[in-house]
# Entry
Amino acid sequence: MAAITIKDIAKMCGVGVTTVSRAINNHPDINEKTKARIMKVIKENHYIPNNSARNLKRSNSKTIAVLIKGITNPFFNKSIKIFEKEIKDKKYSFILQRVEEKQDEIEVAIELAKEKRLRGIVFLGGAFSHSKEKLQQLTVPFVLSTMRMTQEFDLSDYSSVSVDDFRESYKIVDYLCSLGHEKIAIITAPMSDVSIGKLRYEGYKRALESHGLKVDDALVRIMKEGIESYSMENGYLVTKELLEFNEEFTAIYAVSDSMAIGACKAIFEAGKRIPEDYSVAGFDGLDISFYYQPSITTIRQPVEEMAEETIKILFDLINEKETYSHKIFSGELLIRDSTKALN
Amino acid sequence: MAAITIKDIAKMCGVGVTTVSRAINNHPDINEKTKARIMKVIKENHYIPNNSARNLKRSNSKTIAVLIKGITNPFFNKSIKIFEKEIKDKKYSFILQRVEEKQDEIEVAIELAKEKRLRGIVFLGGAFSHSKEKLQQLTVPFVLSTMRMTQEFDLSDYSSVSVDDFRESYKIVDYLCSLGHEKIAIITAPMSDVSIGKLRYEGYKRALESHGLKVDDALVRIMKEGIESYSMENGYLVTKELLEFNEEFTAIYAVSDSMAIGACKAIFEAGKRIPEDYSVAGFDGLDISFYYQPSITTIRQPVEEMAEETIKILFDLINEKETYSHKIFSGELLIRDSTKALN
DNA sequence: TTGTAGGCGTTATCAA
DNA sequence: TTGATAACGCCTACAA
# Structure
């Protein structure tokens, strides 16, 4: 196909490549007429500049990448839209880069930063247990959105926007307790999970304790490996098992809305009602938690505000107004139809 | 930061750049020992090759891109996973590229093909009304997944994998009719939509006609602009309006499962029951249509098989075993709890 | 098995 | 306002 290059265009127009380059990139020092002529030829010949060459040469690029682990997670949908809007508003361009489950997001980030000459990075999702050393390789400003690093990192090592998963989890379990529930099952992440799964579980534990209740190991259910984590299917299978074991409980708390919905399905299939027989609570505040029947009691994370704040912090970093910043948002307990007081 | 380059590594190792390049790219003609030594230095210095430079120089790359319009559409989730798996199995690398709503996917494809030296492209989602001329610019093999081109294109111009939206839509509406429903509302795309929205509407029309029923314009509801198309929210708002208008109907068919769920919510909020008061049917076969209460009667598109076939065709194209190919899959009518016979 | 040198397509520098 | 020309970082003939 012999792709057409800037040289070809220059030749066709009888000008130098520099002039063509100027036309393409809206440089000031160029005669409007020659520019128009060049643009016309470019259009006619469907010339498209080669991005690799551009990135190679360019030092600055005004682009920001959002790295996202688990792109199919509906929780990220709204965030993505806001990131895009906010970044475009600032006249930067926006790249959405998927990170595979097993991939190391920092490595991907470093590589992409080089390739695309990034100005900033947002990390969305993922566990984020990395070596300090590797993190130092990443010389581009970045913000963790809806998560934080593990303990070993100093707060001054990074920036983040998140909710306090421990506290919010405590909040909703506390609410269940206040309804009179004493046997509250939980569907949570494996104990090896050091991030949100662990924090939400700790919140559950503490809430029970503060109501003088003991954690019953038989009611602590771990999501299945090999099945998408935090998914409806996972919640469904775990709850089904729980019901089959005939453990006694009156409420079930799933650490994600998706799992809560799976739990509901399992309960319905067992011929039981919600909330009459079992109360069900979730976490996240997905749209579907409202549309589901019954609507699901949950903790809503203020995704929109969080996404906006993420970008705000990122640009403060870029413009060197700050060196790091951590913002913690409050979740909102949405009391809906899937929970009721124990009579 | 003065990023480290292949030359630096070469110097540090006391070898030429060629040797380093060979080490990186697993070339055969290199002494194992020197290779090990080089790799060690690379590790220690955290050297990462610059992708832009690589892409610029390379002519072949063994990478395939999946372009997706509406990345937040849950319908695509499974397809993406399968694309990734199949492509990796063939030792190609996989790029997922989001296309913005207003962007022209062909243009994005052409540009990306240049930048990344793509071997093949999959288009997922989007409307696909383009000029022939532009399409010819795209010299890389491509397949449309879950959609087809508009009439003006010859079948020999492209390849595709899809269901027959008209026929499947007919199937489910025919089923509703066979249950005795005569007043069946539909929530569909604006008539300006020339792709699946139109086809599914045509199927609805034909099914009614074949049962001797007339299309009642008052029951043909168009999804709202400005709100995400085919979404739960859209189905919810449209149905709410429909109910407020007090139009008489006994069943409602939404051309996507998400809209069907929104419709259910509106019906429940109006204090009505499903399927006793209204039957509800969807389209797509999303997971949530199973988990919803009641489970939603729908047409399941065989996403997995379709995704596999997409890749199969794409590789046949790449290996020049074919010049074009169109595969049409049959949908499956899933009869569930959201529909019942009219007594 | 290794190294030298040229070129991929673009942008930036500098002189005209 | 323009145009040669030198990078950008890498790969690959070709030569050694």
User: Anything to note?
Assistant: Residues 10, 15-19, 22, 29-31, 34, 53, 55-59 of chain A lie near DNA strand D (CB under 10 Å from a C1').
